[in-house]
Write a structure and sequence with these properties.
heterodimer; A: 260 residues; alpha/beta; TIM Barrel; eight-stranded parallel barrel; 12 strands; 34% helix; B: 206 residues; Rossmann fold; nine-stranded mixed beta sheet; four-stranded mixed beta sheet; globular
């Protein structure tokens, strides 16, 4: 059976991992390749890197950091932020990433999803979207862009359905309301999403304790969960190891890849 | 440096660099191969796979590699590993784009039904090895990214199996021809260990 995935997520500024709360107030944690290497050693299932200032600074993604990471980790990783076209996607894949995440850029120009899927296959294109419950759209959830700063008026569930049609191979939903709260994932959002699309789903935003993963994986048909604060945030009173989290999930009957 | 001369076919579709990193990490000398000349003298050839079966076949044709690969693998018995789509094109035909493939192994490549499971399959799945193609393997977790899977005609070509809405072929082996549907180069230490076993097999170490 396919196991549920734990994905460590890193927000990168100038090659270093930082940690934010609700998309603001980033504090410095460690060089990206070092933390990635440590997470690989701890047997995390997958990694995601967001070059969080690339889009705002209107520059391409930091390829050197991607290359450094690729030499240290032998598990799949996704890179996002500052991806403008198929040329940028190719550079990221060539540097050693498996997947490219598109977010604000895909809202502005959805064609990038089709172009990426045609050039590299759907499995390489992750549609990531920042979502907030505003009650202003049919599902109640609205798509935001540019670091959760701008409301688009688009319905989140409609958008992920469109993303799947355009060729996205995986969809990552980032709950703006839950991000950094450490209070658990947005279960209602993931339930809406699981019925809307047939590609794999990643939940992001809100994980603070292992029980949040158990709730997500037992109450929804979500394939993967992003965790970050609970693994490495200096703001947390307690950080959990990958081994601890997985041992707990296995005890609770969740199917995950065991740590050797 | 270990004795094997490893050639990794790079058809600009993506993950050849990841395979190169993995092979080098294991201490082997390895290079990309982009034309017939590049695979001369290889002890092992690896065909990584990203994208569709049809596009991969087109790339091999454009690089003029199909005949030279057949010569190396089928006539000279050079050890060959196909990864993901690189495994799928070993069969006669892929449903993806209705593509005729190499036909080194009998059988077809078909799509998972998304009525039963989410497609693509994405993540770590448990593989049971059903024959002793490389020593010391019974089972392990490996990383899959696939919408299609192979159905070998000859069941004795099946090396490993996994379950995704039903049992499917996760790895194949016939003589010097190996293939894994999972990404060996991205399956952590388990993947590196299996890759190492493949690279050690069939080569005289000095």
């Amino acid at each position: 059976m396919l196991t549920k995935r734990l994905i460590a997520c890193f927000d990168i500024i100038d090659g270093r991992v930082t940690k934010a709360v609700q998309f603001k107030d980033n504090i410095d944690v460690a060089p990206a390749e070092e933390l990635a290497g440590a997470m690989y050693g701890a047997q995390i299932d997958e990694l995601i890197f967001y070059d969080i200032t690339a889009s705002a600074q209107k520059r391409a993604i930091d390829i050197e950091t991607v290359k450094k990471v690729a030499r240290r980790v032998f598990i799949p990783f996704t890179v996002g932020g500052g991806i403008r076209d198929v040329g940028d996607m190719y550079k990221v894949l060539e540097a050693g990433a498996e997947k490219i995440s598109v977010d604000s850029m895909a809202v502005r120009s959805p064609q990038i999803i089709c172009d990426g899927a045609k050039a590299f296959g759907s499995q390489c294109v992750v549609l990531s979207t920042q979502v907030k419950k505003t009650g202003k759209t049919p599902s109640g959830y609205e798509v935001f862009i540019d670091g959760a700063s701008f409301a688009t008026g688009m319905d989140a569930i409609e958008w992920i359905r469109r993303g799947q049609e355009l060729g996205a191979g995986e969809i990552c939903l980032n709950s703006i309301d839950n991000d950094g709260t450490l209070a658990g994932y947005d279960i209602e959002l993931m339930k809406l999403a699981e019925n809307a699309v047939r590609v794999p789903l990643i939940a992001s935003g809100g994980a603070g304790e292992p029980v949040h993963l158990r709730t997500l994986f037992t109450e929804t048909d979500t394939q993967a969960a992003i965790i970050s604060s609970m693994l490495y945030s200096p703001r947390m009173a307690k950080n959990y190891s990958v081994g601890e989290i997985k041992a707990y999930l296995i005890r609770e009957g969740v199917n995950v890849r065991p740590v050797d | 440096m270990k004795a094997s001369t490893v050639k990794i076919i790079d058809y600009k579709a993506g993950n050849a660099p990841s395979v190169l990193h993995a092979v080098k990490r294991l201490g082997y000398s390895a290079d990309f191969a982009r034309c017939a000349q590049d695979i001369e003298g290889a002890s092992h050839i690896i065909l990584p796979g990203v994208g569709s079966a049809g596009a991969t076949m087109d790339s091999l044709r454009e690089m003029g590699l199909i005949r030279p690969l057949e010569d190396a693998v089928l006539s000279k018995n050079v050890s060959f590993m196909g990864i993901c789509v690189g495994m799928q094109i070993l069969f006669d035909h892929s449903e993806e784009g209705d593509a005729p493939c190499l036909g080194w192994l009998g059988g077809r490549v078909i799509k998972f039904s998304d009525d039963d499971v989410r497609v693509p399959q994405m993540g770590w799945n448990r593989v049971s090895f059903v024959k002793d193609a490389l020593p010391g393997y019974e089972e392990g977790f490996f990383y899959f990214v696939n919408s299609y899977y192979a159905k070998p005609e000859d069941k004795s070509d099946i090396w490993g199996e996994a379950d995704y809405g039903g049992i499917f072929t996760a790895a194949v082996c016939k003589g010097n021809i190996y293939g894994t549907q999972f990404h060996l180069e991205k399956s952590g230490e388990a993947g590196l260990k299996l890759l190492d076993a493949f690279l050690r097999a069939g080569v005289k170490q000095c």
